[in-house]
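During the reporting period the student researcher (J.K.) took over the structure-prediction task from the postdoctoral fellow and processed the backlog of single-chain submissions. One of the processed entries is reproduced below for the supervisory committee.
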Amino acid sequence: MRIFIDKQSPKAFHALRQTAEAVRTVAAEAGLDRTAVELINLRVSQLNGCAYCLDTHTRAALRAGESTQRLGVLAAWRDTEVFTPTERAALALAEATTDPADAVAQESAYEAARQALTDDQISAAIWVAVTINAFNRVSIMSKHPVRANRDAPGGKSGVPLSDG
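J.K. obtained the following structure tokens:
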């Protein structure tokens, strides 16, 4: 059984939460809307395999007005036409931030970002990715559980996915 490091070291976790709040503000000021931020959070969480953050940010994306279609194809975003140039550039930067050892992908992502994003948006997208990577590691190392949503039909899903 693992300890929940967020509960074991609440001062450190509080600082991480404050960082996340500051990053959300920076993203909004840079013109990255909440759905773009949640797409970054979800894509990074997919890459890291963080079930808890995937659950949390799927619900947040739905609350922000994200569609189930775009959430469903996010893992294959490069193979679709449903994401804007801004979102595509932010997603590429998020992936490069999550796997910084891939220098070729990093350069490609940064070059694409220069075409679609302002300097403030590039910085904000990277900060969003850095922050969710940290939260992913907290949840993965703590083994935060994902519980079925009591309101979901049959308790099979933590998130009732509908466009309504």
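The committee noted the following: The mean pLDDT is 92.
J.K. will present the remaining backlog at the next meeting.
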